[in-house]
Design brief:
The complex is a heterodimer. In chain A, about 35% of the residues lie in helices and about 25% in strands. Chain A is globular. Chain A starts with a strand and ends in a 5-residue tail after the last helix. Chain B is mainly α. Chain B is elongated and about 75 Å long. The chains are: A alpha/beta, B mainly alpha. Chains A and B meet through strand 6 of A and helix 7, helix 8 and helix 10 of B.
């Protein structure tokens, strides 16, 4: 196995209470795989991603890449965050080359790579622009370019399209698939959108909450990836949804009181329209 | 509006019983102002004042940034110096003047000292809070892209803190400008403040008012034209406004 998560545990102190966020997580991912993690908010999926990135240390267990334990952040595991996180004081090109310059490459090499990656995300025209001059979708594309240009072994994505509108999201989803097919980078993709997870990835890991744990793992049929759902993907969506249902109910009950039942309010046709993005 | 005000001033001055040297008319003030500029009295004072301000303010900025960095970097410094600096900031800088006279004598050094000390604490507080408020997101991005140590401070922490540092500069400038005038008024060695004192001792209120106009003009130019513009540009670019 390429990337393994071995019994990772993490808890935080909150108002003198210990809140277990992740409880004994075991996941293994092969090289070049596109894996998604879905789960209700608060299930610790972002924390798990930060642990894999090396930004957060687990209380117990370990993350290993090719058997080597992860202890600190590394440009081999680059993260694309929910917000673009572009440095506003740098131009698009300077943002993209920020990490490359730390790799001690020649000037020509850096220039060439920046040029190629900006072309890949269709932003060549904006290479001298500053982040405040770009739209949300363009900024997120620069953020993806900045991560890809590092040629990481693993691309960690923390709900990268959650803050975008539907059209921009569809475009970026298909761009991401193209890029993945071209580069064969290993992608770990976190989302709360079931449809997004099913359509993009080869494997979907469903996480439960309080404490965060792996509920079930779904393997997708190896059909050609596309961003339009079909009968097969819809039925997987339904299955994932039924796994998540209990978890969602747990969260809602905690937040709204015991008399609330998600089950009785459920309407299947409504679910397909909202793609489960309300989770 | 301004014209009405000037006319009222001119008329009341001419028809009031207050002697001219106490309440000069607009035309009189304007004449003194133009004469002062032509004979070099005012330009020399302006150059002297700006020179002092530049030295004192620069020193305050350097010391402030350095202290701010130390406070951000070392918890120990924050715990020991942090509160002290807040307390020091609440002391108007002219209060230091008696001490400064004893330490340095009634000279340029004493004035420079209060100009510097007037701006240092504000600068320190702005710088340290600027460094402390650097978005977690930028820090995480930089770390995952392989930045660390000095490179991390130089390429992320300092530029990310620029908007707050510039706001700090603006306030620090205002403090040092006020300290400079107070210092020159009480001290010696020329400058606009000294010219005010000359006007007072000669009973020339037209000179006093002329100098006040010059002070207002310089203050407005620095604040509105330089700092406010700088602040707005940076805030727009950094996306914080």
């Amino acid at each position: 196995m390429y990337l393994t998560i071995d019994g990772v545990k993490k808890s935080f102190q909150h108002n003198q209470e210990t809140l277990t966020v992740l409880d004994d997580i075991h996941i293994s991912i092969e090289k070049g795989q596109f894996v998604s993690i879905v789960g209700p908010s608060g299930c610790g999926k972002s924390t798990l991603l930060y642990i894999i990135a090396g930004l957060v240390q687990p209380d117990d267990g370990a993350v290993r890449v090719l058997g080597k334990k992860v202890t600190k952040p590394s440009p081999n595991r680059v993260v694309v965050f929910q917000e673009d996180g572009l440095f506003p004081w740098l131009s698009v090109t300077e943002n993209v080359t920020y990490g490359l310059k730390l790799k001690r490459l020649s000037k020509e090499e850096i220039k060439q790579k920046a040029h190629d990656v900006l072309k890949m995300v269709h932003l060549s025209r904006y290479k001298n622009a500053y982040p405040h001059q770009l739209s949300g979708g363009m900024k997120q594309r620069v953020a993806i370019a900045r991560a890809l240009v590092m040629e990481p072994d693993i691309l960690l994505m923390d709900e990268p399209f959650a803050a975008l509108d539907e059209q921009t999201r569809l475009v970026l989803q298909s761009e991401l698939l193209n890029i993945w097919q071209k580069t064969k980078v290993t992608i770990l993709f976190i989302t709360h959108n079931i449809r997004e997870a099913v359509l993009l990835s080869e494997k979907v890991i469903v996480m439960g909450t309080r404490p965060g744990n792996v509920k079930e793992v779904f393997s997708m049929p190896p059909a050609t990836r596309q961003i339009v759902p079909n009968r097969e993907t819809l039925s997987i969506e339904q299955k994932i949804f039924s796994v998540l249902q209990g978890e969602i109910e747990k969260v809602l009950k905690e937040e709204m009181g015991d008399d609330y039942s998600f089950q009785t309010n459920r309407d299947d046709s409504d679910f397909t329209r909202h793609l489960g993005s309300h989770l | 509006m301004i014209v009405t005000l000037l006319v009222t001033w001119e008329v009341t001055s001419r028809f009031s019983t207050i002697p001219d040297f106490m309440f000069p008319s607009v035309t009189q003030v304007f004449e003194t102002l133009v004469n002062g500029i032509i004979d070099g009295q005012i330009p020399v004072a302006v150059v002297q004042s700006i020179g002092r301000l530049f030295i004192g303010f620069s020193m305050a900025v350097v010391i402030g940034l350095l202290l701010g960095y130390l406070i951000w970097r070392f918890t120990l410094v924050e715990e020991t110096l942090g509160f002290l600096i807040t307390a020091l900031q609440s002391i108007p800088s002219i209060v230091w003047f008696p001490l400064a006279i004893i330490w340095f004598g009634l000279n340029d050094m004493a004035i420079l000292f209060i100009v510097t000390i007037g701006a240092t604490w504000t600068m320190t507080i702005s710088a340290s809070s600027g460094f402390q408020n650097v978005s977690k997101l930028y820090q995480r991005v930089a770390k995952t892209l392989g930045s660390s140590g000095f490179h991390y401070v130089r390429t992320v922490i300092i530029p990310a803190a620029i908007p707050q540092i510039i706001s700090g500069l603006r306030i620090a400038w205002a403090f040092s400008w006020r300290a400079l005038m107070a210092g020159e008024l009480l001290g010696s060695g020329g400058g606009l403040g000294q010219l005010l004192e000359v006007g007072r001792s000669l009973g020339q209120m037209d000179l006093v008012i002329s100098v006040m106009i010059i002070i207002a003009v310089i203050g407005t130019i620095m604040d509105h034209v330089l700092f406010l513009r700088l602040e707005r540009n940076v805030q727009m670019k950094w996306g914080v406004a």
